[in-house]
Amino acid sequence: MFKKLLSSVALIALAASLVACTNNSSSSTSSSSSGSSVQAKLSDTALESNINESIENAYPSNRFPHRVTAVVWEGKTLLIGQALSQELADNIYKVVTQVYGVDQILNQIEVNTRFNPTISSNITDSAITAQVKSRLALTKGIPSTKIKVITQNGVVFLLSKATSEQTETAARVAAIVSGVSAVKIVTLN
């Protein structure tokens, strides 16, 4: 707990120093917009960490069977994963609504009464995500910087700020990757 608190403080200090550097620099329009994007990324990262820590503190996954993860992108929170019961899924959602800084929540928690988290599924999901990302980067016409890829239990989530045509193409590319059981699109426009 102390290590998590220390790392959160360090992250906030880093964010503050980056903001100070950005504000103190002789700013042109491009440097100020890139500075604000760095600040937004750090804010998203800090918020994501706070949300996931709050979920784990309230409902430790070793006592309450779930594999729920929060992903924050440009201030929007996506909850993905599985919970053993609807009550647990609802309670996790309530915890997230109480985290400071959470605004919009896209709830994709699925209830699975036969849920059984394993380490091997985490490894498989990471491999699927890496494969999808690399295929998207190699596919002409898909702006991979506008599509974030997250995989959980073989389900690929595409968080997209790209056009609907680009996103649909990305979904078709992701769907043919070995191990993908489904592709879900979450548009952030």
Automatic annotation (TrEMBL):
Domain BON: 43-113, 124-189
Record InterPro entries: BON_dom, Lipoprotein_DolP, Transpt-assoc_nodulatn_dom_bac
UniProt keyword terms in alphabetical order: Signal
Leader sequence residues: 1-20
Superkingdom: Bacteria
Annotated coiled-coil segments of the chain: none
Keyword Cytoplasm found: no
Pfam families (UniProt xref): BON
Protein's name in the database: BON domain-containing protein
Source organism per UniProt: Psittacicella hinzii
